[in-house]
Structure formats: C-alpha cells, structure tokens
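Teaching assistant here, posting this on the class forum so everyone can see the example we discussed in section. The complex has two components, and the goal was to see what a joint structure prediction looks like when all of them are supplied at once.
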Amino acid sequence: MNHTLNDLLGTPLAADEAALLDVYSRLKDLAGQDLVPCAAANVRVALAAVAVAVTDLGLEYEHLTDLAC
Amino acid sequence: MSPSDSPFWNPKTETLPREQLRALQLAKLRRQTAWAAERSAFHQRAFKAAGFSPEQLNSWDDVNRIPFLTREDWMASQAASGPYGEIPVTGAEGAIRMHTTSGTSGRTPLRALDSRKDWSWSADMWCYALWGAGVRPHDVGYVAFGYGSFIGFWGLHNGLEKIGALTIPGGAQTTPVRVKQIVDFDVTVVASTPTYALRMAQEAEVLGIDLPASKVHTVILSGEPAGSIPETKALIEKAWGAKAYDTAGMTEVSTIFMFEPADQPGGCHIIEDHFIEQVVDPETGLEVPYGEQGERVCTSFGRGTIPLLRYRTADLVVKVPHTVSSSGRTWDLYAGGILGRVDDMKLVRGTNVYPRAVEGIVRTYPHVEEFQLRITREGIRDEIYLRIEPAAHLSDDEWAGMARRIGVDLADAHEGLRFIVERAGVAELPRFELKAKRLVDERPSLTIA
C-alpha cells in the first residue's frame, strides 16, 4: 500500500481506514488511465463515493477535478 | 455495538473533541484556500487585494484574514463572465450538475456547478441529518418536491438512496395525489418544506385521510425558517403524528450545513467537519460571541468546483455551544435554526416586525389555514394588515373572537403596534410548495435624487 499511515490529525489509521485509503488510491490510479467508457465512468462514480468516505473520516482531503471526478 | 448500529452517520468526527475538530477544520481550510488560490481567478484577485495567502493560516484567528465573499460578488462575476463567472475552478466541462438558487427574492438566480465528487458529497451531508433523525435502510422515503433546476431536495433524494432507503420521487404530482401515495406506498419518512407539510395535512383532512394513523414517523423539513419555529413544528407534528426535524441549506454550498438532532434541543447542529460557520455583526463584520445574534458566514470544504470562502449569507443566527444538546455530538448549534434574514426586518411606525415572529404567534391558532402580511403606506402613515384564511367551518362569531385575540397577541409582541386582521376567503391566499413568501411590502421604495 502506498499512502500515509496517519489521518489528517496525525492519528495512526485503523485497519479498516488503511484499507479504505488503499482502495481510494487504487481508484485514483485507475481514473487516471485510459479505460473503455463503461469502466472509466463507473470507476469515477466509485472514486467519488470513496473520496467522500475518506474525507468524512479525515483520512485525506483533496479535489479531483483533474480526474473528471 | 456494531459500527453499523451507530446513532451517528460519522461517529469519528461527530464526537471529535473540540480542539481536534478545530485542527481538522484548519487543515482542510489550508488545502481549500490553496486550491482556490491555484485555480479560481476570482479568489486569486480577491486574495491579492486583501493581502492574504494560504500560508498565513497558522492559527484559528487567521481565518479572519480571508476576505469575505458576497452574493453580489458572485452575481457580478456571473454577469461579467457568464454563464458561471470566475469563482468556479472549472467550466461546464468539469461538472455533472448545474443548479440555481430559487429566484424567490426576485433577483437573478445564481448558477452553481457540481463535479461528480461534489454531488456525492452533497448527498452525504443530507445523510448526516437523515441518519441522525433515525432514518435507516428499511425506511420508505417520499420527497414532496418539484425536482426542477432549484436545488431543493435533490440532495436529500440522493441521501436517502445512499443510506439504502426506498426512495420515492414525488415530483409532478398534485397535492391530493401526493397524500394518497404517501399512504398507499407505506411511506415512513416524508421530506418537504414546513409550509407544504401543513398543506398536505390540510389536504389529507379534505380527503378524509387520517395521517397520524399512517406509517409516517418522521418529517424532514427544509427550505424555510419555519422548521425551527416551535409553534409551526408542533402543528406539523400533531397533523402528521410524526416527529419533525429541521434542516437548512443553500444552493451556494449545494446542500445542507445544519440539522436538528433527535433530542430536539431547540436548535440545529452545524456540520462542523465540513464547514466553518462564523457569526458576525452585519455592520462591522467582526465575530460575535456565543448567544449573540449575527449574520451567518459560511466556509465550505465540500465543493471543489466552487471554493466557497467566508460567504456572507445574510441569514440571522445565534450560535450556542454543543453542550446544549444531549446528542453526544461535539458540534455547535444554531439556537432556533435560521432566525430570519438581515434584510427581512420591516420597520412599521418605528417598530421592528420580523415575519418569523409573526408566524410564531399566528401558528398558535390551529384554525389558521394560511395567512399573509401586507404593509402599505396610506398618506404618510404605514399600516400592517394580517390577512388570515381560517378553516372553512369557522363561524363568524368564532372568527371574530380569534381575530381579536390574534390582534392582541401581535400588539403585545410589537410594542402596541396595531395589526389590522382581516378574513380572507376560502382558498384566496397563495399556497406554496417551496419557500413561502407571506410578506408583501407595498410601500414605495425610498429613492435619493
């Protein structure tokens, strides 16, 4: 997994939080790739939802307009 | 208790100690202002003019270094660089949604863009409110709303779906059809404006439908301050036999920023992990302490397309500490919800008249079906008329007694100001589905030559 081990307050991540952040990171990677339409659109839908979850939990906070999300 | 049984949508931040909450807000604010400085032409100019840069945000007091944003700024930018102005960081190509303000104030509506993530976030803010009010996946939600370009209850609709509740769009229906559907579809949660919740209850009576005997247990209110007027809320709860919860939002942030918790402490929690809400003196722009009324100033972390920083909302509020609620949340509240607008106070013969205060008195009379305030100037004298449409069965004698008592109550609450109370005919006064407009000021505007 390629991400920080703390949340935005510097608190170490719980196991489920680390897993969620990992999914988020993978979705971002996928959204940056040239995928077929059905995959590209649905990856972005999933990325938007997971981005909200990681923001809610204070794990990450960023905007994704460059990924059309 | 399993995490999924939590009474909170997001237990981590809803119960975060205040110091940590402030640190989280400041961390997000640094990123949001940096985003605005990098991508928004409007904010680049505004920051430069104010001598502000995101690196200056080292402590909580530094929040006040960020320049105010006003509706007039937004409208001017929209007019100069249409169709969306220069506040957004992207044009239409970066968004999946465009909504507008309601336009009920007679001004040009603002146009607001949302990206995919913005739109998903908008629904999520409603989830805080819905989950907090006890809405769960087994519920059946009915959205009594017209689904137009006004943002209204779009986010609530999506929030119900996100929770996993069965969601029924009640658009393009007459009021009788909506009431019948609510009963026929075993609806448990209804969303509407306070005015329209009362309108549906009146229609149910006409149709001979016993709403308190229906399965509806929760009414989610939004769109008007009346959701936090105790007298109006009591009428709604009685008419529906359900708990009613207030929320408030605005198109400028895409969603709601506050909601009433289940313990109904007389106010609404601010969703503080996604917003910084300040209360300022409308004249000086300086923050006022807890318990003092002022203008709401909103900073949102949610929308990426439109970084909303220190936005002067013109809403009047009183912030109180989280300890007034027993909900367990550490988020501050607005006591009494939205108390009015900076610009909706009317001066009549030297007395301040607030539409919300008048409604609070009128709604203590259960036989009032609808009402309207009209202010006129007759010669040099201002007059204020209260036109009331009473229940059709009210006799002339009963009406006369009620009108006299309402007149006395209003005068007592307004330094003796005489309200001329008149009876309106059946179905004579306008009905509203969104944002009731019950005040008509017919006095000529003051102009300076």
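For the discussion questions: Chain A touches chain B through 20 residues (CB under 8 Å). Chain A has one domain: 15-67. Think about how each of these relates to the inputs above.
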